Amino acid sequence: MVELPPVEVRQRIVTGNRLCSAGPEVPVRDIAGAEGGAPVPLRLYGEADGRTTLVYAHGGGWVTGGLDYADELCRFLASAAGVQVLSVGYRLAPEHPFPTPLEDLAAAWRWASERYAAPLAIGGDSAGGNLAAALALRLRGSKRPPTFQVLLYPVLGLPGDTASYVSNADAFPIGATDMHWFFDHYVAATERAGAGADLAPLAATDLRGMPATHLVVAGHDPLHDEGVAYAERLRESGAQVTLRDHPDLSHGFLRFTGASAAARLARDAIVEDVRRLAQSRPYASGQLNP
């Protein structure tokens, strides 16, 4: 992958959609940028009906992916987790580098805040988990903070900072070289230190007031250790945290549900954990109402 230009990598990612199993039939509506004032392409799964709306950012290293990338998971969440899902088609690097994808997700959050009185939550996988975590940090103390966040094998630190970057340097499908490639296309190395928690949520010095968090990590993943570290820091700061560690799975396992029974079981666990969070109605203080 790292020897290809982004346009060819994007084509390969689209081809890889066939390794995902099809999600259940649910009401789906694509919202173009001009429709309803949507800031970027959006896709709604399910109906609001007073339910929590989960604003979701797909993975793909900030360089690849789109609204079809996480289509399967979004369908399962809308069908079985009892939430409406708003999937966000944020603009991609290198054409739209940091912080544009984060600003697009923030704009989608404002769009949802203006339309839904029921609770809003935030989530994402991989680079989308990075965007979700960064936005949750921004939203502390706002009028509409997320009631919970769901971070699936997220990018939380700068590349190469943990032991799992060494032990999983050659992991499939994403290793250390691939992560450096993604970062190099997203933000120049000279700008990373000054980007702070908007780029690396682990750089936040204060995590107090964060919402209830469900964090998922995989054993064969350079990002494993930073996910565990973030869960520990959130817990120490008073947030309610659940951490699921899948030692036998790889980064991006949600992209292999059509081929892997273990990936399907992990997906089902994510759906159940989101259902639990949505029903318990967590709040930004990290406390749960019965």
Shape: globular
| CATH third-tier fold name | Rossmann fold
Largest sheet: 8 strands, mixed
CATH C-level category: Alpha Beta
- Number of separate helices: 9
Count of folded domains: 1
How large, in whole angstroms, is the Cα Rg?
A: 17 Å
What is the succession of H and E elements? HEEEHEHEHEHHHEHEH
Strand fraction band?
Answer: 15-25%
Short précis:
With 290 residues, the protein is an alpha/beta fold. It contains 9 helices and 8 strands.
Q: How are the secondary structure elements laid out?
A:
Layout: H1 6-15, E1 28-31, E2 42-45, E3 53-57, H2 71-80, E4 84-88, H3 100-115, E5 120-125, H4 127-139, E6 148-152, H5 163-167, H6 176-186, H7 189-195, E7 212-220, H8 224-236, E8 241-250, H9 261-280
Parallel strand pairs: 3-4, 3-5, 5-6, 6-7, 7-8
Antiparallel strand pairs: 1-2, 2-4
Question: Could you explain the architecture of this structure?
Answer:
With 290 residues, the protein is α/β, with parallel strands linked by helices. It has one domain: Rossmann fold (3-Layer(aba) Sandwich). 36% of the residues lie in helices and 17% in strands. It has helices at residues 6-15, 71-80, 100-115, 127-139, 163-167, 176-186, 189-195, 224-236, 261-280; strands at 28-31, 42-45, 53-57, 84-88, 120-125, 148-152, 212-220, 241-250. It has an eight-stranded mixed sheet with strand order 1-2-4-3-5-6-7-8, with helices on both faces. Helix 2 (71-80) packs across helix 9 and helix 3 crosses helix 4. The protein is globular. Mean pLDDT is 94; it is low at 282-290.
